[in-house]
Structure formats: structure tokens, C-alpha cells
Design brief:
Chain lengths: ~260, ~775
């Protein structure tokens, strides 16, 4: 069985003849999937659209990602569940979910499974989701406002990410999460860069905003780029992806470190 | 004898005449999704056609077996080359080198090998997959310079040099104090029309066929189609269907012959519509090019010589390469006074996808290079970009490098000056984040952003050139019905979005002095209008409609005189107990054929535009946002000012796209980004505001003084944007489109061939 949420990925696949499912079940009107619950912990139903997230995303980085996605039409239809269902390394919400250390909630007749995002994606457009499982929600702990998401693309809108980066600094939990998109078969967490950033916040104090030195920002960028495993493809070269990640890493750090 | 148009104010004021901004009649249906495009054509019981295409860039076909495919459910016909009843090849401009269906060889990835008609499109596609083919793969050639060397393997019986034009002007050995050189690369742009190739062929009882199709030139399709079908032209009628953009891509036939073959074979109506991906394989693209230039000038920046060698990649078949090569050559020095020039321009056959017509038609490629050269020269002479262009710009009476003098144009210096004096946009600091390069995707909030400004000027011919018998026919019928006088205008001019329908209505209203004018559907039941290309329809069909209307009016005057009435004070209906019908064929003045030294008065007229681009570049990420394009364009006369602005904005959008994102990426002959997911065209966030100064310097031969409008905006806007990016980044940027890599790494795009500018590229040396 194939489910259709916003259809913004599925219909493209059908049009190009890449998929020919026997049955399609539309889930866009299932109310239970469309809710957002927040109480220090966020549970975002799989059916929540990007337009919804602009008003309420439970994460600053996710709201920023939602704003960059597609066009108004795509944002009105496309859902977080669809982004997870497609599991493309270029999916814009996925680096954010990685940085938030979110959990993907899967349900089938056999029951519910909770999969940490780090274990969810297994390759480009591949995940641990079984064919009989529905994505019902993504969940994460609210992490405060020190977050951002950005991606590079040669076109200024309606563009697929050539390289994307999410950074979440959870000042209360003293945690730094970084997620890299479009620069490997899955979303990459650059462990060394996260460790380096933690060191910076340990030094500067987690509770206070600070302005990182230029050399610290550069070093973070370097560590981010070093963790990437990009390829050359029609959208960009591996060399450019690494370069852009270094720039974005440095900018992200400078940006979020100054947010209380 | 000519007759003046009716005196304004003589009777009730007529609305929708020339000079008034006239909205398109199809504007609202198009916006609402109600307009019928060719892909919406439908007929009860029609069959669906599908095409099997070559997976190889170069191969010999050892065996074709269609028997299994023909037995599949719903399949009504499977045709290969053997089933083509008439001529087996076709082509534009008498080149005739392209097989209707593969002739034992395939020469590019996507070449049609067989076509199928079936009850449903799924069945037709399934049948193409069931055709058994055995190929012997041959060694392909992808590098156009390699392809034209004497030692290169022959890719086609007609050879690998599709065209060569050599222009010698003044002293070929002229020397100058200041010399600048450069090698430039121009990648493959696609027309990216939103409407895919589509048509519906309906067999007729008399053994003929009627084809409804989206095309640019009905009669050229007819010329190519009828011989292949083995039918006289009288048995083939072609009717223009709703065209979803053309930009040159519909000059070559696509589905035309195939759909008719299938309809004639099955005796059923057959519709063929390419999908989006197939469309990229099913039409020609803009020629990629390598350009080697040297410019010489005095210390004061006055041009002494231009030497250029240009190689255009024509792909596997000729298409309109011969004319594209001629254009790239004759405009190779730009709209400047150049006393001495040597230009060698060659179109090469390769195993890349075929290239042909696209808006700007050869002029765009050279403009990118000569305008980069002008900026280099300005720098070397200590001048600014505006000054060097004003100093060298042509004025009326000056000749271009083919010795043809300029007639009916505002001085280039004035066009440049007016463009430069248009207001500049606000600074980057005042812009919304979404307006910054990559700002919408949150990459910058101002970090790394540097502004740059660049200028470029371009020019090109209007109408067909070099001795071509270029004409357009119009039939105008004036009669009266219960509501009064009504005129019907019938031409074969293809409305491809450019606005020729509105122009025809405006001209007829102006000339006849009545508001009720209707257009007949364009088809081959009236004489040819020529192509909707070379910015020529307003000039050509405009003239034909104007003259036909004037002949109708003469008849009205005659009738009025016979009755002892004055036309101005008479109700026209009283003179129309019998209809008046006039058919006129307009020909522009003769043009000369090209001479061996390239010198000739080969063109009818020229159009000119200057562009100023303002860009913001994030120099750290290499992302670009074009902030504003200002333009001054000499249009002669704005027959429909609204249409003129539409053409200027649309042409600039295509030029901006080419400058920063539009590229068909071809690797080993394969298009890697055959979709609008990966072939990027500008969105509303990429398209800058345009400010246009529309100059109306009348051309003595154009209708009401009008010149063409459509191509000029595309020619120099690309060069202006790249100049602006150079100004912001200090990079050389010798390639379009400019990629982020080129900005951040300064990637070189040299071909690896050594060619002295002006030398014959067929004697190139590697290294
Ligand atoms: C023009 C355009 C622009 C786009 N721009 C962007 C962009 O900027 N960034 C970006 O990330 N994406 C972009 N996309 C891709 C797409 O919009 C997103 O991936 C979106 O999140 C898909 O959501 P959807 O609800 O439309 O998914 P659908 O197309 O309905 O489904 C996608 C896949 O997920 C499966 N699926 C959906 N919901 C569930 C569920 N609850 N449980 C299990 N499986 C499910 C479907 O079966 C299908 O395989 C764009 C697409 C288009 C057409």
C-alpha cells in the first residue's frame, strides 16, 4: 500500500513513471496526524504541512527550513511525514530533525515503534520504515531559540539543496546538534564539529550569548566540511559542497551563539 | 499606390489601434488554465503515439524486430524507417540530413528509432519497450573542435563541418597599441517552453491528413512533411494549435511527421504529446560555443581591430546551424565601428544533442564574448564601461564588419547613455533578507554580500537574411452582418506567445477604422507567413496585414465614389452589400547572398538594446541575486507598448537565466538534467525588476517604423549580468552560465585547444 499525504513527491514519481502502485490511500484528511502537541516536548503529527510550521513549528530551525521549502503551493501541501517518507538526503527538514535528535514514530497493525532519527535513514531514499508502517509523528525536546537552518542552491527559490546545514544549541541541556544535508547518502552529524562547539560554549558559558571569534567560526566550518561525504552530481561539485558547508558552519555558529 | 490611414477623429474613436497598450485576448484563459494547448487536443477514439529513442550517442543498428511489440494488446501500428512512404530524411534550410526514423545509424542519445500507436499511452509506451534492437556501438565524438579537424572520424555522410563563415574586413594584419585576448565558453541553454511538443493528426477521406500542432512555421512544416508522407502538399493541411512557448525550439519538426505517419497507417486520429523529460530530447537547443577573441584599440580606446574564431556545437544534425553560424559571424564584433576584422566561424557536427534556433540565434554567443572583451579593453585603456561603448558605438551610416551600413537606428551612444541614466536600485543593506543571494534559504543575512554593476550592448538582424526569399501573406475580408461592419484577418502567422495576434488586430483596426476585427485560425489554407522567429512577424505579417487592409480601403473609397459619397461620413455597412476581400503577399527588400569574404548587405534591418545589470553576490558562497536590470531598446515604433514590455521582460528573464543558472548538462552525449527539477529557470525571486526606456527611432521600411522587439532583450542581458558579477568578484568569468564554483574557486574553463583568434579552427592544436 502506498500512502499519499501532500502528494508533492509521490505525484512527481508517478508522472515520471518511476512508480506504479496498485493502490493509493490518501491520508491528508486524517485529523489525528495533523496535530502539534507542545509541553517542553514536541510531538508533530506526520500530516503537518510547511505552511502550518511557519506559524508553529516547535523549533526555530524547523520553522526556518519550512520557510525555505518550495513555493507557497508546495508549502501548503507538503508535509513533514512526506519528507520523512521520501527520506532524500536533500529533504530540508531532515538535517533539523537530526540536529534536534528527534524520534520518528512508526505505527503498524503490529504496534508502534520509536526510532531515533539517527537510525531512521539508511541511504538515499531508504529508511528502516517497513512497507506496512505509517509514519505518525516526529518528536523532540524543545531546545530553545538558538537554532538555525540554511542551504545553498544556485536558484533563489524552488530549489533543491546542494548542501544544507542545521545547528541547534540547547543551552539548558548543554547540547549542540548539527545536521548536514545533501552531502552524503544520509543526513550526517559531524561529531568533531559538535564537540568543538560544545567546548566553545563551555568556555563562553552556556547561559550567555557570545560572539565567537572569527578563527573559532572558521574552525567549526572546517570540521563540518571534513565530516561531509559529498559527491559530484548535476546539482553541484563535491568541492563546492564542502566549501559551502564550511561557510555555512561558520555563519551558523556566529548566528546562534549570539542568541540567548 | 499607398493610401494614408483614416484620419483620427473623423468618425467614432476606434479603440485598440496601434500605439495603445492592448492586452492579449488569451491572457485570462491562460491564467485560469482554460486555454487549449496542443497537449489538450482530444478526439473521440483517438490513438496515442509514443517514440522509441536511441540510448547511444553513436551506433549502427544491426537488427530491428518489432514483431513482439506489434502483438501487444491495444497496439495498432509500429513503424520504423522502412515504413516511411516518401522521402526518408528531412531538415531545415535544405540541409535534409536528419532521418525521419533512424536510418541504420543513431547519432545522438534520444534520436527517434521507431514510433508506435496504441489505444492508450501506457500501451504505446509498453510497446516501445518491446521492440528488439541490436546495436553496434561506435566511437562517438563530443568535442566540436576535435570533430572538425581533418583527422576526425566522419559522423555523417555529409561530413562534420555544418557551416563555415569567414569574414575579412579592412586590413587583416592591422596592429594596435592596446590588445586584449580571451577564450570564452558558452554552455547549452534550453528554450524551456512550458508546453511540451504535441499535436493531433487526423486522416482524411481523400487519403490526406490534417495536423493540429504547436509550431512556429506552419508552411515550413508542410514543406518537410508532405514529401516524407509521399503526399502532395494539397493533401496535407496544418492548423496551428495552442502554443505553450517556442523560443526557436518549434522551428524543427518534432511529432509532426511521426503523428501523420501513424494516422495514415492506422486510418485513425493519433495524438502525440511528449512528456517533460522526453521534451528535452525531442527538440533542439541553443548552440554551445567556444570563442577565441582578440581586440585591438588605440590608447584612447578606439577599436582598431577585432579577430575572432568561433566554434558552435551543432550536435548530430544540421537543423538551422548554417544560419546560426552566419549570424554569430556577422555580429561577432558587436554594434561598434571596427575598421579591421577577421572572423572565422564554424558549426561542427558531433554526437551531442542537435542544436538549432533559440531567441538571439547566434548573436547571443558572440555578444557574451565581445562584451567581455570590451570591458577588458576599457580596463586596459583606463575607461569605464559606459565610456568605451559610447566612444565606439555605431551611428547611422557606419558599417558593420560585413560592410553593411546602419539605417534607421538611434546612435548606439544614445542607447547606452539612456540606459546608464536610468535610476539605480537601493543598496543591499536596505533589502529584505529574501532579496539577498541565498537569503531566502537563510544562507546570508548580509554576510559576504558585494554589489556589482555591469553593462552590455547587443544587436541582431530583423527578418531573414542572405538572399532568402522572405515573404508573408495576409487575407483580409470586410463585410457587414447585423451588428455592422466586421473584418476577418487570415494569416498563417504563428502566435507563440509573442503577441502577433494582438498586433494584427491593432493594425487592421487602425487601417480600416473599425473596431470589430477577428482573426481566423492560422493554418495552411492561406499563404505562408514565414516563421515566428528572427523577430520578424510584426515586420512581415504586420506589413502584409497593413497592405491588405489598405487595398480593402481603396475598394471602399471606390465604392463610395461610385455612390457619390465621402468615406469619412458614410456608414461602412452601406458600402458592404458585397464583401471585400484582398490577399496581399509582402516581401521585404532583397538581401545579398554572402560573398566568400563575408562582405555583403545580407540583412534587412537591425535591432539594438543596451542593458545595465546590478547584482548582489555572496562572494563566500558564490551565490548571486540579480537586483535590477535596466534597459534602453530601440524598437522603432511600439505598436503594442504592453507587448513590447512583455517581450523585454521575458527576454531579460531568459538572459538572466542563462547568466546564472540555465544549463543543459551533457555528459558523453547524454542530457543529465532533463527535468525542471534540475534544469533551473528563474523564479519570481530570481527575476529582478526591469526598468525599460523604450526608444522609438523609426525604421524607414518597418510598418509604422517598427523594428523587431523579441530577441534584443536576450542578446546582451546575459553579458551585462556576467559583467556585473565580474565587478563584484574580480573573477574573469569566461564562461556562462556562471556557477558558484567559478566564483569561489575561479575555475578555469579553457578548452585545451590553441587557436589564434581569427584562424581557421579546422587547424587547431592541442595544448
Ligand atoms: C516543486 C517542488 C518543490 C519542492 N521543494 C522542496 C524543498 O525545497 N525542500 C524539500 O525538502 N522538499 C521539496 N520538495 C519535495 C516535497 O515537497 C517534500 O519532500 C514534502 O515534504 C513531501 O511531502 P508530501 O506530503 O507532499 O509527501 P507525498 O508526496 O504525499 O509522499 C512522499 C512519500 O512519502 C510517503 N509518505 C507520506 N506520508 C507518509 C506517512 N505518514 N507514512 C508513511 N509514508 C508516507 C509516500 O508514500 C511517498 O512515498 C519539493 C517538491 C516539489 C514538487
Amino acid at each position: 500500500m502506498t500512502v499519499l499525504a501532500g502528494g508533492t513527491d509521490l505525484m512527481v514519481e508517478l508522472n515520471f513513471g518511476r512508480r506504479r502502485p496498485e493502490h493509493i490511500v490518501a491520508i491528508d484528511r486524517v485529523g489525528e496526524l495533523a496535530g502539534i502537541e507542545r509541553n517542553g516536548h514536541v510531538r508533530m503529527g506526520a500530516g503537518v504541512t510547511y505552511t502550518r510550521m511557519l506559524a508553529d513549528a516547535g523549533s526555530q530551525a524547523l520553522a526556518e527550513a519550512a520557510r525555505t521549502i518550495g513555493s507557497p503551493q508546495i508549502r501548503n501541501a507538503g508535509t513533514i511525514g512526506g519528507n520523512l517518507g521520501t527520506a532524500s538526503p536533500a529533504g530540508d527538514t531532515l538535517p533539523v530533525l537530526a540536529a534536534l535528535e528527534a524520534t520518528v514514530v512508526l505505527r503498524s497493525k503490529a504496534g508502534e515503534r520509536r526510532v531515533p532519527f539517527a537510525d531512521y535513514m539508511t541511504g538515499p531514499k531508504k529508511s528502516v520504515r517497513r512497507a506496512d508502517e505509517l509514519i505518525v509523528a516526529a518528536e523532540w525536546d524543545e531546545a530553545g531559540p538558538a537554532q538555525t537552518y540554511m542551504f545553498v542552491s544556485t536558484r533563489n527559490a524552488m530549489a533543491i539543496s546542494i548542501a544544507g546545514l542545521a545547528m541547534v544549541v540547547d543551552r539548558a541541556r548543554k547540547r549542540v546538534g548539527i545536521g548536514l544535508g545533501s552531502c552524503g547518502p544520509t543526513i550526517i552529524r559531524p561529531a568533531d564539529a559538535e564537540g568543538f562547539a560544545r567546548g566553545l560554549f563551555d568556555e563562553a558559558g552556556w547561559e550567555r550569548p557570545h560572539r565567537p571569534s572569527e578563527s573559532a567560526a572558521k574552525e567549526l566550518g572546517r570540521l563540518v566540511a571534513a565530516a561531509a561525504r559529498p559527491i559530484d552530481d548535476v546539482r553541484g561539485t563535491a568541492a563546492y559542497r564542502r566549501h559551502a558547508l564550511a561557510v555555512m558552519g561558520a555563519r551558523a555558529l556566529s548566528r546562534v551563539a549570539q542568541i540567548a | 499606390m499607398t493610401l494614408a490611414p483614416p484620419r483620427p477623429g473623423a468618425r467614432v474613436k476606434v479603440r485598440g489601434v496601434i500605439g495603445e497598450p492592448a492586452p492579449r485576448e488569451d491572457a485570462v484563459p491562460k491564467v485560469k488554465g482554460e486555454f487549449q494547448y496542443a497537449s489538450d487536443l482530444w478526439r473521440e477514439g483517438m490513438l496515442h503515439g509514443a517514440t522509441l529513442r536511441s540510448p547511444y550517442p553513436f551506433a549502427r543498428i544491426r537488427k530491428v524486430d518489432v514483431s513482439a511489440a506489434a502483438k501487444l494488446p491495444g497496439v495498432r501500428a509500429v513503424l520504423t524507417q522502412d515504413d516511411v512512404p516518401g522521402k526518408k530524411t528531412y531538415g531545415l534550410m535544405d540541409r535534409d540530413d536528419q532521418p525521419v526514423l533512424a536510418d541504420g545509424y543513431v547519432r545522438f542519445v534520444g534520436e527517434p528509432v521507431a514510433v508506435v500507436a496504441a489505444d492508450t499511452i501506457e500501451q504505446a509506451r509498453a510497446a516501445t519497450k518491446a521492440i528488439v534492437l541490436e546495436y553496434e556501438v561506435l566511437e562517438p565524438t563530443f568535442d566540436p573542435i576535435a570533430a572538425i579537424q581533418p583527422s576526425a572520424a566522419k559522423l555523417h555522410p555529409k561530413g562534420n563541418v555544418l557551416e563555415r563563415v569567414r569574414i575579412l574586413h579592412g586590413d587583416p594584419a592591422a596592429k594596435a597599441d592596446v590588445v586584449v585576448e580571451g577564450e570564452y565558453e558558452f554552455a547549452m541553454q534550453d528554450q524551456a517552453a512550458l508546453g511540451p511538443e504535441a499535436g493531433l493528426a487526423i486522416p482524411r477521406e481523400d487519403g490526406g491528413v490534417t495536423l493540429h500542432v504547436a509550431t512556429q512555421w506552419l508552411h515550413e512544416d508542410l514543406d518537410q512533411l508532405a514529401p516524407c508522407l509521399g503526399l502532395p502538399e494539397s493533401k496535407v493541411r496544418i492548423v496551428l494549435s495552442g502554443v505553450g512557448g517556442a523560443f526557436g525550439a518549434r522551428e524543427d519538426t518534432s511529432i509532426q511527421i511521426h503523428a501523420c505517419l501513424l494516422a495514415l497507417k492506422t486510418r485513425r486520429a493519433v495524438r502525440m504529446t511528449y512528456g517533460r523529460e522526453e521534451s528535452f530530447f525531442g527538440h533542439v537547443h541553443r548552440h554551445p560555443a567556444r570563442l577565441f577573441y582578440a581586440h585591438g584599440a588605440t590608447k584612447k580606446g578606439e577599436l582598431v581591430f577585432v579577430r575572432a574564431t568561433i566554434v558552435l556545437d551543432g550536435g548530430a544534425y544540421a537543423s538551422s546551424s548554417s544560419a546560426v553560424v552566419a549570424n554569430a559571424g556577422s555580429f561577432a564584433a558587436g554594434p561598434y565601428r571596427v575598421p579591421n576584422a577577421v572572423v572565422d566561424c564554424v558549426g561542427a557536427r558531433t554526437n551531442n544533442p542537435p542544436t538549432g534556433a533559440m531567441r538571439g540565434f547566434g548573436a547571443v554567443q558572440s555578444c557574451f564574448a565581445y562584451e567581455a572583451q570590451m570591458d577588458k579593453l576599457a580596463k586596459a585603456c583606463g575607461l569605464d564601461a559606459v565610456e568605451i561603448r559610447m566612444r565606439n558605438g555605431l551611428v547611422e551610416g557606419d558599417a558593420i564588419i560585413t560592410s553593411q551600413p546602419l539605417v534607421g537606428s538611434a546612435p548606439i551612444a544614445e542607447i547606452v547613455r539612456r540606459c546608464a541614466s536610468l535610476p539605480l536600485p537601493e543598496t543591499a543593506a536596505h533589502r529584505d533578507q529574501s532579496e539577498l543571494p541565498g537569503g531566502h534559504a537563510n544562507v546570508t543575512r548580509g554576510e559576504g554580500v558585494v554589489r556589482g554593476v555591469g553593462y552590455a550592448v547587443g544587436f541582431k538582424n530583423v527578418c531573414y537574411s542572405n538572399g532568402f526569399d522572405d515573404f508573408a501573406t495576409a487575407r483580409v475580408r470586410l463585410f457587414a452582418d447585423a451588428e455592422g461592419p466586421l473584418a476577418r484577418v487570415h494569416t498563417a502567422a504563428a502566435e507563440v506567445g509573442q503577441g502577433i495576434n494582438t498586433v494584427q488586430l491593432q493594425i487592421a483596426r487602425t487601417e480600416l477604422g473599425i473596431e470589430r476585427v477577428e482573426l481566423e485560425t492560422a493554418d495552411t489554407n492561406v499563404g505562408s507567413a514565414g516563421s515566428s522567429s528572427a523577430s520578424r512577424q510584426t515586420w512581415m505579417t504586420g506589413h502584409a496585414v497593413l497592405q491588405a487592409c489598405r487595398e480593402v480601403r481603396q475598394e471602399l473609397v471606390r465604392r463610395a465614389e461610385r455612390e457619390g459619397l465621402t468615406l469619412d461620413r458614410t456608414d461602412l455597412a452601406d458600402l458592404l452589400d458585397r464583401p471585400i476581400e484582398k490577399t496581399v503577399t509582402y516581401r521585404h527588400q532583397d538581401t545579398e547572398k554572402r560573398r566568400p569574404d563575408g562582405q555583403s548587405r545580407g540583412h534587412v534591418a537591425f535591432m539594438f538594446a543596451a542593458h545595465r545589470a546590478v547584482v548582489d553576490v555572496d562572494v563566500e558562497t558564490g551565490l548571486v541575486k540579480v537586483v535590477q536590470v535596466a534597459t534602453a531598446q530601440d524598437v522603432g515604433k511600439a505598436i503594442n507598448p504592453l507587448g513590447v514590455i512583455g517581450q523585454i521582460e521575458g527576454g531579460i528573464a531568459q538572459g538572466v537565466g542563462l547568466a546564472v543558472m540555465e544549463e543543459l548538462i551533457v555528459e558523453k552525449g547524454r542530457i543529465r538534467n532533463a527535468s525542471f527539477t534540475d534544469y533551473l529557470i528563474p523564479t519570481i525571486l530570481d527575476m529582478p525588476p526591469v526598468i525599460a526606456d523604450v526608444i522609438e527611432h523609426p525604421h524607414p521600411d518597418g510598418p509604422y517604423g517598427a523594428k523587431g522587439v523579441g530577441e534584443a532583450p536576450t542578446i546582451s542581458s546575459t553579458a551585462a549580468v556576467v559583467a556585473a558579477i565580474r565587478a563584484a568578484t574580480n573573477r574573469d568569468l569566461e564562461r556562462v552560465p556562471v556557477r558558484p564554483d567559478d566564483i569561489v574557486f575561479g575555475t578555469s574553463s579553457r578548452s585545451g585547444w590553441r587557436i589564434a583568434p581569427g584562424d581557421d579552427p579546422r587547424r587547431a592544436v592541442r595544448g
